Amino acid sequence: MQLHSFFNSSTSQRVRIALGLKGLAYDTLPVNIRVGEHRAADYVANVNPSATVPALVDGDFKLGQSLAILDYLDQRYPEPRLIPLEPHLRARVLELALLVSCDIHPVNNLRMLRYLETELKATPQQKAAWYRHWVGEGMAGVERMLARSATGPWCFGAQPTLADVCLVPQIGNALRMDCDLSAYARSLAVYEHASQHPAFVAAQPQRQPDYIA
Amino acid sequence: MQLHSFFNSSTSQRVRIALGLKGLAYDTLPVNIRVGEHRAADYVANVNPSATVPALVDGDFKLGQSLAILDYLDQRYPEPRLIPLEPHLRARVLELALLVSCDIHPVNNLRMLRYLETELKATPQQKAAWYRHWVGEGMAGVERMLARSATGPWCFGAQPTLADVCLVPQIGNALRMDCDLSAYARSLAVYEHASQHPAFVAAQPQRQPDYIA
């Protein structure tokens, strides 16, 4: 398999974690979103109509949207399963993963911050406040979900799931942006636990072939 | 079942459509997000830690995040199935649904527009430009996906799927916001087709008990 990926894209990182957890070998095809390579005509026409990273290539099949890729991998390579089959646990895992994926990440990614700067003339302080605001809103929800289920060391028990796959890169992102996460102790405990796991470590931005210091 | 819902929340509308397609009766519990009812302490603590709409109540089980709810309903009440089981079709359906749900909706919802106005002092023109920009970016991707699969009358063939459940409310939303969608003919054709289907019609904002003219 091949993965079109950018080193500090947290959606790319989700897929890298899942590939690692499942022990699936892949080649990284770097797409530098800072210079707009995800918008190149050939990439959009032939790889990923979303014009985003990541995109998975599995034989003849090319797929964008990280959560669709994660579901596809879980269907096709189910060991270890990241989206549980038991309906209530499955729902809780998806609920947390989607809170991260719909309510936190999309409003804080590169294209948002660029639009704020170029079109709305937001100052660096306003951009930082924007980022922190939505991280705070979302992480408060994550923390409430973890308090309700009250397990550990992972979000939902003894094994990592899609919830961890989505949460851990988001926390890493927030820490890089100097967000104060001290109010989210359960989330940080999951993050610290994941930071010892080989698949999570190998997926970190600074370990990618396209890393830019 | 009961659905905590707001009449013109497109995430609530997704769930209303799915309940209708599956022929499941439910009571609407209105949550007026314009006046912050989704942030009420009791709702957040006891119903939906995401502090959003919708939230489904199925017996003792309460669940937030519309896509988690839609997956749950599809698992528990699989007829008619909205998320196909065949891996490649399933992946395409999820890819389109997630493009709408992650790349279009979250950046254009009420809380975004309010933040732009109150914190960044965006003018009505700037808010409208923001909305149209992200709709345009996302709808171009949707249209490319539909061109690639080239089916109809629904996004992926003869039956509605999760892709339609997500796309149709988003298009309705964009039309209410006076976006020019004429470049997205395939998407509009799906929307027009859906507008004749009883489950899609019944889920429309103006038909909800909490509708505000």
From TrEMBL, chains A, B:
Molecular function terms, GO-annotated: glutathione transferase activity; maleylacetoacetate isomerase activity
Enzyme class, broadest EC rank: isomerase
Any one of the GO BP annotations: glutathione metabolic process
GST N-terminal domain mapped to chain residues: 1-81
UniProtKB keywords: Isomerase
GO cellular component: cytoplasm
Keyword Isomerase listed: yes
EC number: 5.2.1.2
Gene3D superfamilies: 1.20.1050.10, Glutaredoxin
Short name of any one Pfam family annotated for the protein: GST_C_2
Matching PROSITE patterns: GST_CTER, GST_NTER
InterPro entries linked to this entry: Glutathione-S-Trfase_C-like (IPR010987), Glutathione-S-Trfase_C_sf (IPR036282), Glutathione_S-Trfase (IPR040079), Glutathione_S-Trfase_N (IPR004045), GST_Zeta (IPR005955), GST_Zeta_C (IPR034330), GST_Zeta_N (IPR034333), Thioredoxin-like_sf (IPR036249)
Residue stretches making up the GST C-terminal domain: 86-211
Family per record: Belongs to the GST superfamily. Zeta family.
NCBIfam families associated with the record: maiA
Listed name of the protein: Maleylacetoacetate isomerase
